[in-house]
Design brief:
Strand content: 15-25%
Radius of gyration: 25 Å
Number of strands: 17
CATH superfamily of the largest domain: Type I PLP-dependent aspartate aminotransferase-like (Major domain)
Oligomer: single chain
CATH architecture of the largest domain: 3-Layer(aba) Sandwich
């Protein structure tokens, strides 16, 4: 079947209307020296049946986590997704809904976003949350820029080396555009070096960016970090966190975080080969007008009926460009809906069970691996659901060998640092059984 919307007659009429004889004439302004002077040598077209067969063959080459045992982490986790989440997402009114540019018409979408915002504030303890960002990394980058708008003085951002390396790259890309400097604070024994942070603090610092639990799974000493940012320069404390961890750990509001961000993928969203995901973003009430993105509010109409409105939409399409807080043009509404449905289904107790099972199983796995000859835990610190193991040979080689047994052993940290080529980041969620963990331990022992 040919998917060509225009007939030969259609094309002839269009060419006559614009005054050219052929499609080739449309390329006349392009210099000949930069034109491709050979055939593209494309394969012949396929019938619909042949194309479906071809696409299925390509898809079959992908390795899905349902077909193996996954201990992958580093910001994306294989948590269980209740069937009700997908059932709700595939309802027509949600699945086909577009960004609410005329928001008050989309009351169902606005209510879903409002519920998402409410749940994020309950998780983090913060006053307000927006409708979501693109992902965790862009949420942290937007938080750095927001900190500058709040403080209004300074051009430096301090970021812990224990923050996800890809988050640090995105932050640096964002702040580079406004001429700011990013200083990386080293990590010692898997956690932010408080002494180095203290030495780096001055009045020119607009934000201190940390992650808790951090990239290595380690739980940071957040009270110490808060005291530093308060006492030296009044910088904004930006904390990125795993939302599942907040069912067990102290919420960021309790240790004085100014802005809280994170990746919402663990909340009802599949790993999906890397996306799409959603970033959550929360802050204190006093900073609400400096927040990026959109914020949905609840109100009543003239008849007293409850309704939802786009309360704040501080982006360049809605207000004067120079006053826009962000160029984020949308929120990840469908992904945020998945997170909302997931949190509503799990409730406080269910989420705590997920966090507890993940933590207990991760510690069981860590103890078992540490007993193997040639393996040891890199850091002697409290951790949540993932941990770093030093291996007897390059972690990438071990990952490849264990994959032959149907196990994704973890993330090779050599991807991010040459100093950690023999380090493996292992994540354990509530989905992993004792038998699966024991299989991982046996496979690691065999690969040593």
């Amino acid at each position: 079947m040919r998917y060509l919307p225009n007939t030969d007659a259609d094309r002839k009429l269009m060419l006559e209307s614009i005054g050219v004889e052929s499609v080739d004439d449309l390329f006349t302004p392009i210099p000949e020296k930069v034109r491709l002077d050979r055939s593209l040598d494309l394969p012949a077209g396929l019938s619909e049946m042949e194309l479906v067969r071809h696409m299925r063959a390509l898809a079959g080459e992908n390795l899905c986590t349902d077909a193996c045992v996954s201990f992958l982490g580093a910001g994306v986790y294989d948590h269980y997704l209740p069937a009700a989440v997908d059932h709700m997402l595939t309802r027509g009114e949600f699945y086909t809904a577009y960004t609410p540019y005329q928001p008050e018409v989309s009351q169902g979408t606005l209510q879903a976003i409002f519920e998402f915002q409410t749940l994020v504030t309950q998780l983090t303890g913060m006053d307000v949350a927006n409708a979501s960002m693109y992902d965790g990394s862009t949420a942290m980058a937007e938080a750095a820029l927001m900190a500058g708008r709040v403080k209004r003085k300074g051009e430096r951002v301090l970021i812990s080396e224990a923050v996800h390396p890809e988050y640090r790259t995105v932050v640096n890309t964002y702040i580079h555009t406004v001429g700011w400097e990013m200083t990386t604070i080293p990590a010692v024994d898997g956690a932010t070096d408080v002494a180095a942070l203290k030495d780096a603090m001055d009045d020119d610092v607009v934000a201190v960016l940390v992650q808790n639990p951090n990239f290595f799974g380690v739980v940071e000493a957040m009270d110490e970090l808060r005291d530093l940012s308060e006492d030296m320069g009044k910088a904004q404390l930006v904390v990125a966190c795993d939302p599942i961890s907040l069912a067990l750990l102290k919420p960021p509001a309790d240790y004085g975080a100014d802005i809280v961000v994170g990746e919402g993928q663990p909340l009802g969203n599949p790993m999906s080969y890397g996306g799409p995901y959603l970033g959550f973003f929360a802050s204190t009430q006093k900073n609400i007008r400096a927040m990026p993105g959109r914020i949905i509010g609840q109100t009543t109409d003239v008849e007293g009926t409850r309704g939802y409105v786009m309360t704040l939409q501080t982006r360049e399409q809605h207000i004067r460009r120079e006053r826009a807080t962000s160029n984020i043009c949308s929120n990840q509404a469908l992904n945020a809906l998945a997170a909302t449905v997931y949190l509503s289904l799990m409730g406080e107790e269910g989420l705590r069970e997920v966090a507890e099972h993940s933590t207990q199983k991760a510690h069981y796995a860590a103890r078992a691996i540490a007993e193997l000859d040639g393996y040891e835990l890199c850091f002697d610190r409290p951790f949540f659901k993932e941990f770093v193991v030093r291996c007897p040979r390059p972690a990438g080689e071990i990952v490849a060998q264990v994959l032959d047994e149907g196990i994704l052993a973890g993330v090779d940290l050599g991807r991010f640092s040459k100093d950690m080529e023999d380090c493996l980041l292992v994540a354990v969620t509530e989905k992993r059984t004792k038998d699966e963990i024991d299989r991982l331990v046996a496979a690691l022992e065999g690969s040593a």
